[in-house]
Amino acid sequence: MGRRVTPLKTPLKPATPPHPVDEMLPPGRMATVALQHIASMYAGVAAPPLIIGAAAGLTPAQLTTLLAASLFIAGIATLLQTLGFWRIGSRLPFVNGVSFATVSPILAVIEAKKGAALPLIFGSTLVAGLFCFFLAPVFCRLVRFFPPVVSGTVITLIGVSLLPVAGNWAQGGNSQAPGYGSVANLGLAGVTLVSVLLFHRFLRGFLQRISILLGLLVGTLVAIPFGKVDAHALSSLPLFELPHPFAFGAPRFEVASIISMLVVMVVSMTESTADMIALGEVVERPADDRTIAGGLRADGIATAFGGVFNGFICSAFAQNIGLVALTRIRSRFVVALAGILLVVMGLLPVVGGLVSLVPQPVLGGAGVVLFGSVAVAGIRTLGKADLSVGSNAIIVAVSLAFGVFPIAYPAFYQAFPEQVATVLHSGISAGCLLAVTLNLLFNHLGRGREVPPAYVPETQIEALGRVGDPA
Question: CA dist 9 to 6, 12, 187, 328, Å?
């Protein structure tokens, strides 16, 4: 008989840990950070429907429908971005919601069309969403024109352009309201900011990472004795409400309003592209062409969905990129949970109303840290672009200037044609377009270029997003 040979057992290789973006956190932590994301973006997603509804003369019930639709669609868009399917979604911790860029052109349509405006707006939004979806594969190739000298400039402008928003919130959020800019409002913002800083300085571990949420809680509690927290509004909200397609009438289509929405859609696509690049750097998973195309497709589907269910153009929320950088919690499933909660808030207006109890000055105090963190991330990206080489310093200097002009002087481009002014009115878009153009001029065209012609994220992007690291 032959000798029996025992086969050698190959030792099992240890399982490769998932990338932090794909990490599933414990339920308690996921819920807490998800609530922090919602608290950071709620004012941004609620402001456009409130402004548009007031301009359109909607009743309180209609205004509730508009606000609930914006929350519901923001949740759908966020789920598409974080979880994704097929070639749709960036699969990054990417929060989406109503783009504030829609407000100005929509108000112009309301002024021109009066009572017939909303069906035109939703019809144009539907067209803009389909446009974004089908143009995504072409538009995503612009990523090769975003080397660090361009992406760093744009990310810095994103943070800088958001800081005035924090300042407005700190003063009260509505310049026409009594008490705007009062010592009480600014004091609440200051208490919130100091609370966030103290929590971040003296707490450790997970509690340090939710310092923004803790600061918002402290600010809201301090605001109660000053009468800044109005819970009476909750009693007028319905407990449950399903979204109604075309609740304001069948969609209508006119060339002028469609062109306006297409311009806004291009602006939003530009900002989303820049935000995906920024977020890719923060989470150390660089955004390539496929990631950006998937993210833009998600924007397009959510926008078209919004045209049906009484919503508006969807785009990235840059303030949540700052939150990811600050907390260093990069799991996309945390943001997916925030998307689920947004959907619930859209279906349960009372639940959404609870988040709205946080006063604007309190949000403003927290916004200083959030939005400033985005600007810092941009500065770190610029540190990877050798500003002593060629004309890189000039590209940054001129692009930042033209990006800041419309932020400092909102009427800077008012003499331009309306479609052009709509694009340039966004400091992010103006600075982005100029940075890309100057980079092409100085670093791509002609001989003697001194930087690589294409943006290769895998080799150019280093670790970023440690804004919250203690010294």
Answer: 9, 9, 68, 40
The answer to whether 91 touches 82, Cβ cutoff 8 Å, is yes
- CB-based contacts of 117, cutoff 8 Å, min separation 6: 56, 106, 109, 110
Instruction: Centre a 10 Å sphere on the Cβ of residue 203 and count the other Cβ atoms it contains.
Output: 14
Q: What pLDDT was estimated at residue 76?
A: 93
pLDDT of residue 454: 38
Q: 316 pairs with which residues across the strands?
A: 96
Contact yes or no for 42/370 (Cβ under 8 A): no
The answer to whether the beta carbons of residues 110 and 99 sit under 8 Å apart is no
Among candidate residues 247, 296, 266, 244, the one with its CA nearest the CA of residue 121: 247
Q: Which helix (H) or strand (E) holds 57?
A: none
Which letter does DSSP use for residue 225 in this model? G
Q: Rounded to whole angstroms, how far apart are CA atoms 426 and 403?
A: 8
Distance between CA atoms of residues 437 and 448, nearest Å: 17
Other CB atoms within 10 A of residue 241 CB = 18
Dihedral sign from CA coordinates of 127, 130, 135, 139 = positive
Q: Which parts of the chain sit beneath pLDDT 70?
A: 1-15, 43, 54, 60, 104, 114-115, 142-144, 205-206, 209, 233-234, 236, 351-356, 419, 422-423, 426, 446-471
**Cα-to-chain-centroid distance, residue 26:** 25
Per-residue confidence (pLDDT) for residue 465, from 0 to 100: 35
Residue 366's pLDDT is 84
What are 47-67's pLDDT values in tens digits?
788 778 767 877 767 777 888
Tokens of 436: 């890309």
With the CA atoms of 417, 422, 425 and 429 taken in that order, what torsion angle do they form, in degrees rounded to the nearest 10?
A: -120
H helices present in 203-254, as ranges: 205-209, 211-223
